[in-house]
Amino acid sequence: MDPRPGQDSELQRLWAEMESGRMEEAATTAARLLVGTPDRAVRAEVEGVIGLMLLRTGRLAESAARMRVAADLATAPAVKGLCLARAASANFLSGDVDTCHLLAAQARILGERGHDPNVVAEALAAEAAVVHARGDPVTAARLAHRARDAAGREGPGAVSHAVTAIMLSAAWLDADRVADAEKALDDAIEVGRLAGIDLALPWLLGFRAVTRFVAGDWGGAERDCSQLVTLAEATGNLVASPIGWGVAALVAAGRGDSVSARQLVATAGSHRLSAVGSYGEDWLLLGRAVAAASAAEGHRHLVGAWYCSRQRPWFLMWRLIAPTLVRSALRFGDLQLAQDVARVAADGAALAHGVPGAQACADQCAGLVGDDPDRLARAVAAYAVADRPYWKGKALLDLARCWTGRGEASRALPLLREATDIFHDLTATRAAAQAGLLLAHASDAPARRAPAADPLARLTRAERAVAARAGRGMTNPQIAEELCLSTRTVQAHLSSVYTKLAIGSRVQLAALVAAAEGLGG
Questions:
Q1: Which residues touch 451 (CB under 8 Å, ≥6 apart)?
Q2: N or C: which end of the chain has fewer CB within 10 A?
Q3: Does 425 or 369 have the greater pLDDT score?
């Protein structure tokens, strides 16, 4: 499956073309080799390269099929095992967890029979992915750790090392060992670069972006996304691109830059790998949800992200999406959906053997559905143990809303102050604006009347148009261009808006716009 010294020059050319992203040339070379040679070993290697090409471009089912053809042609147990291990991985990425499990077990037996530790490593990594997807990240981490220890770190072994590091980092991330997950990825990226192999680099960058995003290192996540997308474009290794676009959009929207978030997901629209999505499409749909122009559009994308993630039931995404979807479903009056998602979250927490972040998700969803402050308080405490600051902040907002709704605003105030501090530390401008608005309402709750249904009701139509765009993150020149106004007119409208609404910053304006559009949750 990997080029060896003394190999036929045509095979060397095929590998070089594939690894440099010259897919059209590689396809021609592969066709020429398949037609021109009866040698089973050569044909097996060509089919394996075609499988990798299809994997890189996101055609996962086709990749798995070509890998299995390569395995059928291979005569050496180690080569056959490597083909089956990579077919297993492609099946996992396409959502066929059961087939992945079957092929991984076969591959491990062949790797042991052929005395090839890299085959054993990739097979174990696929088995770890299955265990993880079935709800046990702790056991998955142990399997993936064994896989990484078995893999080499030079030549072809560097690819196997990267594959095992990806599975290990995913399991550790869902087991709340975030620092360990990032360290595993840092090490694998360095190993790949030293070995001169970038076959798995987009995947490694994508998983590190996810890890950094969860840990609150949004700047690091943003840099990884940028590198990932650039590398994917340069090499044709597009399969991880949806993760890059999605996480980058989440960071932009979280910082209050809705314009950039929308631009990112709009650009990603031309990079979708199939009509029904691909691995990582759940991240892109989540990015579309936070960048949406309306609550209804955002809800639709959230539902899509949820069901897309359920193809690999307990692998990474469910804990990120579930509370947000419950909140959105309740806002739209869909109690059944909210209850269904909360039930799934409870099942996931039970499977995860007491992992704090999983239990926090379950408690948060149940607390939202039942308007239960005790469950929400348990979620806050568990997120603190799991070291997931952004999600702790959101749970604090949920608990504060619960107490405020019960007429106990004084209990909400310290929660909102803590949430505001968390969001400011993360530069999560959008959430900080929500917390600030809630804090202002809770602080003067005894003295004020019920707020108007529309916080922007006092504005003229022109002022409202300008305010809405400024609140979503657009600059004055961008607003002027979109509304066909001069920048001076835009500034005049904004001055009037600030006076009428008694505010002094765009952060406050963003909170009022979010409330007016039903996006305050």
A1: 441
A2: C
A3: 369
CA–CA gap between residue 91 and residue 104 (Å, rounded): 10
Q: Quote the tokens at residue 347.
A: 């099942």
The C-alpha R_g of the chain, in whole angstroms, comes to 25
SS3 sequence, 463-495? Answer: HHHHHHHHHCCCCHHHHHHHHCCCHHHHHHHHH
Per DSSP, helices labelled H in 195-217 are 201-215
pLDDT for residue 3? 43
d(CA 35, CA 12): 17
CB atoms within 10 A of CB 503: 15
Q: Assess contact for 17 and 25: CB atoms under 8 A.
A: yes
Contact 126, 81 (CB under 8 A): no
Identity of the residue numbered 135: G
- Are the C-beta atoms of residues 80 and 71 closer than 8 Å to each other? yes
Residue 54: which of 73, 67, 41 has the closest Cα?
67
Q: If you average pLDDT over residues 355-366, what whole number do you get?
A: 97
CA 183 centroid distance within chain: 18
Percent of the chain past pLDDT 90, that is, above it, reads: 60
Residues 360 and 391 sit within 8 Å (Cβ to Cβ)? yes
Burial of 285 (0-12, 13-18, 19+ CB in 10 A): buried
Round to whole Å and give the CA distance between 474 and 492. 16
User: For the segment 293-328, what is each residue's pLDDT rounded down to a tens digit?
Assistant: 899 999 999 999 999 999 899 999 999 999 999 999
User: Which residue intervals of 74-194 are DSSP H helices?
Assistant: 77-93, 97-113, 117-133, 137-150, 156-174, 178-194
Identify the CA nearest to 516 among candidates 462, 472, 450: 472
CB 395 within 8 A of CB 376: yes
Q: Packing angle between helix 60-73 and helix 40-56, nearest 10 degrees?
A: 170
What spatial distance separates the first Cα and last Cα of the chain, rounded to whole Å? 50
Token pair 């550790």 is at which residue? Answer: 172
pLDDT tens digits for 41-58?
A: 999 999 999 999 998 888
Query: In 126-136, which positions are buried (b, 16+ CB within 10 angstroms) versus exposed (e)?
Result: bbbbbbbbbbb
Q: Can you tell me the distance from the alpha carbon of 206 to that of 213, in angstroms, rounded to the nearest whole number?
A: 11
Residue at 149: amino acid letter: D
